[in-house]
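Notes to self after the Tuesday call (sharing in case useful).
The group wants a holo model before anyone commits to mutagenesis around the pocket. I volunteered. Ligand is nicotinamide-adenine-dinucleotide. Logging inputs and output together so the record is complete.
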Amino acid sequence: MRVVVTGGGGFLGSHLCEALLRRGDSVVCLDDFSTGEPKNIARLRQNPAFEFRHTDVSVAVDVSGPVDAVTHLASPASPPDYLRLPLQTLAAGSRGTENALRLAHRHGARLVLASTSEVYGDPLLHPQDEDYWGNVNPIGPRSVYDEAKRFAEALSFAYRRTLDANVGIVRIFNTYGPRMRPHDGRVVSSFITQALSGAPLTVYGDGKQTRSFCYVDDLIRGIIAMLDSDEAGPVNLGNPRELAVTELAELVLDITGSSSTVEYRGLPADDPVRRRPVIALAEELLGWHPEVDIAEGLRRTVEWFAARPEDLAAGARLLHSGRSGLP
Ligand SMILES: NC(=O)c1ccc[n+]([C@@H]2O[C@H](COP(=O)([O-])OP(=O)(O)OC[C@H]3O[C@@H](n4cnc5c(N)ncnc54)[C@H](O)[C@@H]3O)[C@@H](O)[C@H]2O)c1
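Result:
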């Protein structure tokens, strides 16, 4: 297949490009590097089956030649990124999604939309299954991301219903692994960066809020299974093992052997209290479930961060200066 991957220069997108190339697909990667990094795909650019186009998908998604499938991942995704880029985030979710849908529809190609557990907002139902409609503040600071993804889902389903487009939606829960940016403000990358550089681990709120963390390889298998199916979804993809943020901090300290302390700060606006996916649908429709447990996934991620001391030091400086991380 010739697969278009929007946002292919980012954390998840670069792993997806790699996995598709590994199984023999060719890949057209579109990215504007607003939050991704050229080095994520530097190695892939030597592969003749890989093409890169510097593109802002909210302006246009033009790809010449055959297109067999589209995966739409382009969007700022970490809270500091979408809070810094609110209008771009709304544009990627709305105009960007429409441009990607048009391209796929023109070619009769399947499109998989990377949606998010953030569509459930601060959920009143726990754990979250796909029938839950969510609890989102439509005008809060996080709404630029949550509502953009909810709109992207609505648009995708409208294409499916009115134009019979072959569209599927995955709702991705917190995913971690190699290639997260040390300073991207997500909790796993921040804790690892702080632990490895001897800085205190920053916990927002009392740390009792929970998240469910999925290792990147598991998640990418799920996206590809969705791509290879004709399912509409939405389908939750995530690891149902729920962990309090303080438990995660302890695990990271244990794995890194760090003697960093833990520092508590105020909780950001609309921060969800609990998050855990019900993945019965992914198991039933796609035969998918995560395989890498959190301790093993964290060990692999720590190893990757530790092997890049310069990036780590730069990330630690940014985290410490307050120019990254949650406000
Ligand atoms: N990582 C997670 O835990 C997670 C959870 C839920 C959903 N997702 C979704 O998965 C997708 C990828 O997330 P990620 O974690 O890899 O984030 P990321 O920031 O590393 O990757 C996003 C990529 O999209 C690119 N991009 C952003 N706006 C663009 C635009 N207008 N035109 C072209 N490229 C653009 C960025 O440069 C970046 O390379 C996002 O859609 C995100 O919402 C991720």
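Two things stood out.
The longest strand covers residues 110-116.
The mean pLDDT is 94.
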